[in-house]
Design goal:
single chain, alpha/beta, eight-stranded mixed beta sheet, 14 strands, globular
Length: about 325
């Protein structure tokens, strides 16, 4: 069971700290085109995205009360974020909306099993480190104390670590994502979810099945957290303390993979709140992510708990 501080009133289920952006998503009718050719758009939408932004939507759909914090909003993104999150009941009062800053956006072209993301995130972080232009909040200890569980993105360096330390200090278990084993946050997390895309890009020596098993063992040298290595439409590797388990991905007819990874992360936060054992968390998260792949835009039709349980029950896994 989750241990909480005595005498502390928990005002919301989940606190999330990380990237919240405005997403411009384009779903193609056909496969991704070659250069200098034409392809028709099937659908186009604008909605809140980012790892934390999407996770907030999923958790709200699963019935949790959620508060989010992270990067600053701007004049191009404010209306989209405020209108949407106010509608679904996600608390965005911690987010600072800078009237002199346009805000973070991404542009995503989706082709069923693939997606290509365009953005200016390298410029965003380079401005931080080279020009000392910091456009994200320092996490609030008062907010974290009031949460039952948390999700922390690693992208904001020292501020992400501060959030992790506040969680540890106040016995708020948290999920983090896409990190190497030697990250300081690893020692404090309850669950670490690492995507296959991150492994391929940042840890290519561990990209094979044998490599993923070895990666779990590498994490075990730093933490006793549950380690989950997602595999897209392939096997999910998970374990703790060096033990390695494999769970096969559910097979579905994919419309779009956009948001599937964020859905998996959010579902792990949900399972952490329920104090589920490891396999149950992985099974629920895999089911929720599979349903996410059958929908576009996911953010307007997110999975519900009963729906996920029915899907898992009807499967042969």
């Amino acid at each position: 069971m989750i241990e909480q501080e005595e005498g502390v009133i928990k005002e919301f289920d989940a606190y999330l700290y990380g990237l919240i952006v405005r997403t411009n998503a384009f779903l193609l009718c056909n496969n991704f085109p070659e250069a200098d050719t034409y392809n028709e758009l099937r659908e186009k939408h604008i909605f809140p995205g980012g790892e934390t932004g999407t996770a907030a939507t999923i958790l709200a759909s699963l019935g949790l009360s959620v508060k989010i914090d992270g990067n600053h909003g701007g004049y191009n993104t404010a209306d989209t974020l405020k209108n949407y999150y106010n509608k679904i009941g996600v608390d965005i009062s911690a987010i600072y909306f800078d009237p002199n800053y346009e805000g973070l956006e991404d542009y995503i072209i989706i082709d069923k099993n693939t997606r290509t993301i365009f953005g200016m995130f390298e410029t965003y972080f380079r401005d931080c480190y080279e020009k000392n232009i910091i456009r994200w909040n320092t996490p609030s200890e008062k907010d974290i104390i009031k949460a039952k569980v948390a999700g922390i993105d690693t992208y904001f360096g020292e501020q992400s670590l501060i959030a992790a330390k506040y969680c540890s200090k106040h016995n708020v278990p948290f999920v983090t994502i896409d990190t190497k084993p030697n990250n300081d946050i690893c020692n404090l997390a309850s669950i670490i979810v690492v995507s296959s895309e991150y492994i391929k890009d940042k840890l290519p020596n561990y990209y094979s099945d044998n490599g993923k098993a070895n990666l779990i063992k590498e994490f075990a040298k730093e933490t006793n957290a549950l380690i989950i290595l997602t595999g897209g439409n392939g096997n999910i590797f998970f374990g703790r303390n060096g033990e390695v388990n494999v769970f096969p991905a559910y097979k579905v007819e994919t419309i779009s993979t956009l948001g599937a990874g964020d859905t998996f992360k959010a579902s792990c936060i949900y399972g952490l709140l329920q104090s589920w054992e490891d396999t149950q968390i992985v099974k629920f998260a895999a089911g929720c992510a599979a349903i996410a792949c059958t929908r576009f835009p996911l953010i307007f039709n997110s999975p519900k708990v009963d729906e996920v349980n029915n899907f898992i029950g009807a499967s042969n896994i």
